[in-house]
Amino acid sequence: MKIAILALQGAFAEHEEVLRALGAETFLIRNRADWDIEKDALVIPGGESTAMTRIMRDLELWEPISEALNQGLPVFGTCAGLIMLDDAHLSTMNITAQRNAYGRQLGSFYTEDEFCGIGKVPMTFIRAPYIERVGEGVEVLATVDGKVVAARQQHQLVCAFHPELTPEDTRIHRYFLDMIQGK
Ligand code: GLN
Question: Which domain holds residue 146?
Fold first, then answer.
């Protein structure tokens, strides 16, 4: 299985390590030419969604990525990656993200909570969003204090937190790999 990781800015190297530890092949997308390499799925990492949007547009990656996701390419978005898939950005998922939703005080925190079908997982939040609107076709996978922090819509998986920053627990990345294989 070959997984493309969007590496324009943000925490892409950590995803690479976890996915490789699970036996997946990975490569980084740094420009438009990289996008043409054959792949089974895409990871959009955490970072800064405004910067990521601008760079994706400048590099002419916006349209091809949007098209591929709409055609069913599996994708995993974490934090800013979640924001990129919402209805104000690539709009491939029927969700609305609230950016920097935890305010300044609680900007970054760690907790452990239930993830549907997996159990309690570590959750590292860094100036994280949550999902304020879950539309039709979207399955909620995790909530923290009543806020939706993970969801899936068919081949698209998003987490408001950073599973790649707790690499000793690989279960969510494993879930993504299973999802790619249609399990
Ligand atoms: N606050 C960032 C944004 O709005 C997301 C933070 C992250 O990805 N860790 O894009």
Answer: 2-180
Domain containing residue 59: CATH number: 3.40.50.880
Lining ligand 1 with CB less than 6 A are 46-49, 79-80, 83, 99-100, 126-127
| Lowest mean pLDDT across 100-104, 115-119, 155-159 | 100-104
Query: Model confidence at 106, in pLDDT bands (50, 70, 90)?
Result: low
Tell me the average pLDDT across 18-32. Answer: 98
At 134 the pLDDT is 98
Catalytic choice (15, 159, 164, 173): 164
Q: Check whether 104 has a pLDDT greater than 70.
A: no
- If one counts the domains in the chain, the total is 1
Q: Which atom of ligand 1 is nearest to the CA of 83?
A: 10
- Can you give the three-state secondary structure of the chain, one letter per residue? CEEEEECCCCCHHHHHHHHHHCCCEEEEECCHHHHCCCCCEEEECCCCHHHHHHHHHHCCCHHHHHHHHHCCCCEEEECHHHHHHCCCCCCCCCEEEECCCCCCCCCEEEEEEEECCCEEEEEEEECCCEEEEECCCCEEEEEECCEEEEEEECCEEEECCCHHHCCCCCHHHHHHHHHHCCC
Q: Which of 15, 89, 162, 173 is catalytic?
A: 162
